[in-house]
Specification:
The complex is a heterodimer of chains A (112) and B (113). With 112 residues, chain A is mainly beta. Chain A is built from no helices and eleven strands. Chain A is globular and about 40 Å long. With 113 residues, chain B is mostly beta strands. Chain B contains no helices and eleven strands. In chain B, the strands form two sheets. In chain B, strands 2, 4, 5, 9, 10 and 11 form a six-stranded mixed sheet that branches. A five-stranded antiparallel sheet of chain B has the order 1-3-8-7-6, with no helix packed on it. Chain B starts with a strand and ends with a strand. The chains are: A mainly beta (112), B mainly beta (113). At the A-B interface, β4, β5 and β10 of A face β4 and β10 of B.
Chain lengths: 112, 113
């Protein structure tokens, strides 16, 4: 069964550093998303991406965050100048648009 | 702000027993209700996507029902097995299949052998 692959599985970074989280979506999927879960809280939506542009973003997704699909395959989430409160599990998800998402196994980001 | 709630937050069930838990969601602007099964260190696994009021879906020993008028869905597990231990997440879809999901807090199910 096709999978969404995320790398790295775990990233530790110092406060103020930039991190890039990577996702390889399923090849025929057209819609891409980033979600995150802070420990003990709900999974929350960050951003959706379709046709090479952001289609919707949440209040969390401020100027500190950006997404791109630079080579037509990898889908990346960049967090500039990380803060302690950015520590979370970050999930990439992709969809065909016909219903149902496929999630990756997540990147656990720890900001110290 | 959409509010999606799940109950109970955690549940311990004896192996072989059946169980069920609830997801409540806004009854207005409904498009889809998703159920996921999530084991630690793994990807959330899609169980069901439900769109029509009265929908009932089944996958092996797991089934789900949907009431969009009153804004709730039930997930049932028949004859629980240790491998059913996981967190079960429901998510409200505001636009079928291609827009954001709003998640509940999850129900953490532990099956006692």
């Amino acid at each position: 069964e096709p999978e969404v692959t995320q790398t790295p599985s775990h990233q530790v970074t110092q406060m103020g550093q930039e991190v890039i989280l990577r996702c390889v979506p399923i090849s025929n999927h057209l819609y891409f998303y980033w979600y995150r879960q802070i420990l003990g809280q709900k999974v929350e939506f960050l951003v959706s991406f379709y046709n090479n542009e952001i289609s919707e973003k949440s209040e969390i997704f401020d100027d500190q965050f950006s997404v791109e699909r630079p080579d037509g395959s990898n889908f990346t989430l960049k967090i500039r100048s990380t803060k302690l409160e950015d520590s979370a599990m970050y999930f990439c998800a992709t969809a065909t648009g016909l219903g149902g998402y496929t999630f990756g196994s997540g990147t656990r980001l720890t900001v110290v | 702000i959409l509010n999606v709630e799940q109950s109970p937050q955690s549940l311990h069930v004896q192996e072989g027993d059946s169980t069920n838990f609830t997801c409540s969601f806004p009854s207005s602007n409904f498009y889809a209700l998703h159920w996921y099964r999530w084991e630690t260190a793994k990807s959330p696994e899609a169980l069901f996507v439900m769109t029509l009021n009265g929908d009932e879906k089944k996958k092996g020993r797991i089934s789900a029902t949907l009431n969009t008028k009153e804004g709730y869905s039930y997930l049932y597990i028949k004859g629980s097995q240790p491998e059913d231990s996981a967190t079960y997440l429901c998510a409200f879809g505001s636009n079928f299949g291609n827009e954001k999901l709003t998640f509940g807090t999850g129900t953490r199910l532990t099956i006692i052998p």
